[in-house]
Specification:
Helices cover 26% and strands 19% of the residues. By secondary structure, the protein is an alpha+beta fold. It has two domains: 202 residues, Alpha-Beta Plaits (2-Layer Sandwich), CATH 3.30.70.20; 29 residues, no CATH class. The chain has a three-stranded mixed β-sheet with strand order 10-1-11. Helix 7 runs antiparallel to helix 8. It is globular and about 50 Å long.
């Protein structure tokens, strides 16, 4: 079986996803598919894409849920993006019989070597998040690569060296950075907003974090207070109104 890095670095590249502002537009899933179809894990095959039962390999999926508050009875739609969480204690790595699934010591990213993967699917059974994708056209497992061929690409401008899903999010709900550095922007965001692990009871120590939705009524009340105190003229007033209406 495969071992996790014995001496991992303190660097942990990952995503922070804000469930409060994700609008479920699927831009992240589409751009992820487009980039990775020609990147590290290419190709990402589709089956019967225009038929009655289309299927294929997708690294990022967005689920929609209707959530009702136990306190107020109010409901709201929450969109929940999910992909590989690049866990520190990744069970998909330790069950791999060939070493094809591995965790990089230099940045914590979990990858699959298609050259040594035998398609046994043990990693998909071990992953509690359902983040593994089996490509039955090639007979190998595939997964989110954190766009490793993009974030280190020096031919791109520095601001473009982020995962495809982050670069395409129109709402700014996705953030990328070093979660091993407590002073990084993503770590401070997690601290400020009470970011949490997905299914912590699994004890996989996922690197990616989620920011919880905030109470919409509270946000509307705060906006109302800001409107009353607004002193910078019509332009600023319209900006706040636009924000309020977007909720």
């Amino acid at each position: 079986m495969t071992c996790l890095p014995k001496e991992p670095s303190g660097k942990k590249l990952g995503l922070v996803i804000d469930l409060d502002i994700c609008v479920g537009c699927q831009a992240c899933t589409v751009n992820c598919k487009e980039w990775n179809a020609g990147g590290h894990s290419n190709p990402l095959h589709d089956k019967d894409p225009y038929g009655g039962e289309p299927d294929g390999v997708w690294f990022n999926r967005v689920h929609g849920y209707e959530v009702t508050s136990e306190e107020t009875g109010n409901s709201q739609t929450v969109y929940f993006p999910k992909s590989c969480l690049h866990c520190d204690d990744a069970p998909c790595v330790t069950v791999c019989p060939t070493g094809a699934s591995y965790k990089r010591s230099e940045d914590g990213i979990v990858l699959v070597n298609a050259e040594t993967c035998i398609g046994c699917k043990l990693c998909s059974w071990a992953c509690p998040y359902g983040a593994r994708e089996y490509d039955d056209t090639q007979g190998v497992m595939k997964k989110c690569t954190m766009c490793v061929d993009r974030i280190y690409n020096e031919n791109l401008s520095e601001d473009a060296r982020v995962p495809a899903c982050v670069s395409s999010c129109p709402a700014g709900a996705r953030h990328f950075g070093d979660l091993g550095d407590p002073n990084s922007g993503v770590s401070q965001l997690v601290e400020a907003r009470g970011g949490y692990d997905l299914m912590p009871e699994q004890e996989t120590k996922p690197v990616n974090k989620y920011l919880p939705p905030r109470a919409k009524q509270h946000m509307k009340e705060e906006t109302g207070k800001q409107l009353k105190k607004q002193q910078d003229g019509p332009k600023g007033l319209m900006k706040l109104l636009d924000q309020a209406l977007s909720w």
